[in-house]
């Protein structure tokens, strides 16, 4: 029995009237965990009951603690009939299971009902006591930290970045079980919510086991998704990047009070018993087969485009002795891994050596329920197949790793498109598990790749390129080759040198398809996919050139399948990288040169395009320094056709009229206008309106070229559902409609947020769904951040200088990676070259230093421990975290420091004003320091109505629901003692309506990291208090008494 | 392509003050859109009519959801559904409870009943306010009235507490409650020239001088009523008119230059009559103040008049009201 969960129900407020006669409610509460249920007394005749219950105690396994949510049900007591449920609160107690997160969950939670929405609030206090776990066949993975953030969390440093972790769990969807026909919608929704909550708990636990097995202590970039496969079941799957994280020891920089010696005392001695504690022998099958009654009876795989071209299969030759060396070393580090993938999008400086380009793979599958439960898990096999493909694509680009990796699905009836994409990259082995070869290699990397441009240098062999590309010498260092454009799925590296500002670029595309069944349907989809990929790519390329830019970051291509169409939406942030050549213009070439008016038309269009490019360059402040031509001359004379992008339908023809290129660059982009399609495309190119003045937008974490953010942020979600006219739908009209829909949505966002100008919409995330025949649903989540205009103007005078400055300050902020060896001797390689031994010696010198520090701290700590109460408090802390010590001993935080934080930022329940909780899809808050991560927020809600009109129609219904979801997220964060959610994402918003029946249903899944932040301005003013004083009001007193 | 569903939800609830005012004024979405268009918003922001429509609809929807909470402002501050910074919350509440003085003047002293509500379309026609705005304001009066009806203590403070209104607005509501409680017939033609502001000020003076709360803060009776005991006591003052001797003495004691006709005391509103002769004789405000002063103090010299304290309490209220009312 390794844990005790304690729950206290304090009070309720604003409860709904349940008894019409008295206009009051006789409320009581049921507290359920696992199979145990407790009840409070009935508090009669009140809408603001004060239960003030005893502590309800659940004695449970930590496995159960991880899987189960705490379920609190508020009911109205009825003497004569059945008690009526008012609503429920599900609390994920996971944040209480690891040492650095929250120690208590306490606060007001909205009482939620899937039919009525929020109905009042309830005040609850939850605590967990964990006992040391001596069972070596552990199934739990308490203590592994999870982060949604796709970079190393701010107050940690990565000791080792281990790599990819994935898992999926399958079950039957309660909505499709026979019992659903006889139970109420409420019961069905609740069954579903509970099941998904259970499944995600189980999934997280299993991922945690894998993390322990890999000797990590955290998962960063954790992305969990649901596939609602309808009849065939419910899949919960997750991917992430396993890391060994170390809490930054100099938190003093962040929080003066943490500077107390006791902090380091706690940290240092525990570094030594390293991750031996992970005795997870995982005797049980990790790949669970419970409920996996799914299979495929048909499958079509689509060969993927490597985005930078049509390359396939063959790996490039090694180029040059250095590359070979590097490759071998990295290879050795990565080869043990099945999939050298990383879900991170931002990396510590120096981690990313080279970037090859975007790799993606898609596969069309047919979902079918199978009646043989012994069938192996097909979902696992499907994903494995796709990942394999991604891996081979990366290899073709001369890369051993894939970064910025993500997976997604689109399901329509029984057809499912599985997609995966990422950025092929060469990584610095120093950060990987057995990175023991630092020394010379590190130097050589630095020498070979200057920080501002190294990642742009091609990783593949220029003589044997996987696809046609136009190479030049790097415009920054002039030593290595770079491609003419670079597409990636990651964020812009902080050290990258960018000229001007960036902008959001979207490619939008629709393709009609015939309605079909099963295999025929799957085949027609797979036939369409390559064309869609290609056209999306063409659009992106054209739009990029039109803005005078040469690189895309954060590229995300979503292909959505509907009954009679496919939709593609690609979003990325375009920038001008100083290392890459200036993009040429776009040149229009006509196919019928003899027609006079046609010629005129063409030249008119050409002029328009040229004007737009010039205007954009001005708008985004792209003024690259002029370079003498001879330096940048391309070393590889290439046939002109190579750089020309041809439309998919037209054949590559030599008869193209060679017009004089207005931009004077020999690698101008040629658009052939050979049919009306192309005309439309050119038109649509020019219809993308730039954002109104004062607005910028991007889909990455930070906007290149803006650094002086002010603290005002506004996170929002906007949803639109549009009906496409069903008459004479053609690809063209569809494209136009879709384009207008997206453009109008953006326009209305700019209008709504006009009071924030100057501001930037960051992390703009569009998702497209085709819920029904003629319906298109677009959901956007983003954050608007204001910035100081005056400073920007100054910064623009020397953009390059500024970006370099930024890079260097960021480097300082992000702590240098330690030279330490991996603490586990087993992990190091058997034969060490002399240099490594040397390395080892230097790193060992670091250990005594740490011990020295320890002894000093200890004595000074003992001085302060003059009251035995404090000693007991500390003891209680240790007991509580007993089981963590074995697994995550590297990450101890001082309870005193924690107490300090808690004291500062937890609003007291008695305070009537609601504490503000910020939400942002970014991993940071401008003008603030994140001082603590409190745990992952992963919530799933269902809302249903049978009185759609009365609730304000579909808009009223969904508006209220999304507001409720935000409110519930904020309440959970506040109860954990936090004041913000970072890396917030709405992963799913499935909306279904039936206006004829006056019904609608919506499912929403959101996640993020709960944090405590402190304003930088407050930090400066914060007085340095003696920590003895600070430790007094800690909640650990509770630990002693119970 | 038509948008069936079109929503925007911010983590901090987005509130456009201009649109809020349009909503409060009772415009429909399309009316509000055309008003915004007339304001030249399109030109300033370079957007399209459809964007403006979508924006307006969105705001109206938010306000409708907020309305339920605005009915009990402390809940607006405690609720978790909409994250609104406190200054914004205050502005929302103030906006919602603000009312048109012309409408309040019409309703002053009337019973806040369903019958009155049905007459609102006439009021709407007379005041030029939209019926919807009239209804909201009427409902606000009624809601405030109901909330403090049974409570004890100073009215304005109670209202401020329960509805989180700024003090001047709370005082105005207190006046409305006072009139609704005591049913003064403010609709009489003779009183037509008085504005809401005049009457509200009078109500405050009367409450200030006559009610229980004014005498003892822990009064047992609600502040909206003039205490019965006080009205009973007033009968004692009748001697000043009924006793011929006293009346004559009083008259002579009051400066002979002041020819004010002394009216009956038992009905308060009849006291207003004092204004007419004064006005017809073109008294100055100063003269009136002088007259009232000596009129109040004169009975001190009267032998056999035992109610001087009561008299002065009564006259303090009356004098303040009369001075306020005495204008063109």
Please give a structural write-up.
- The complex is a heterodimer of chains A (1042) and B (328).
- By secondary structure, chain A is an alpha+beta fold.
- Helices cover 30% and strands 30% of the residues of chain A.
- The model of chain A is unreliable at 251-326, 434-448, 629-668, 792-911 and 1024-1042 (pLDDT under 50).
- Chain B has 328 residues and is mainly α.
- Mean pLDDT of chain B is 76; it is low at 214-222 and 255-272.
- The chains are: A alpha+beta (1042), B mainly alpha (328).
- Chains A and B meet through strand 28, helix 12, strand 31 and helix 19 of A and strand 1, helix 4 and helix 5 of B.
Kindly report the average pLDDT value of chain A: 72
Global mean pLDDT of chain B = 76
Spell the H/E element sequence of chain B. Answer: EHHHHHHHHHHHHHHHHHHHH
Output the structural class of chain A: alpha+beta
Low-confidence segments of chain A, ≥5 residues, pLDDT <50? 251-326, 434-448, 629-668, 792-911, 1024-1042
Helical fraction of chain B: 55-70%
Main interface pair? A-B, 54 and 39 residues
Q: Give the CA-based shape of chain A.
A: globular
**Multimer state:** heterodimer
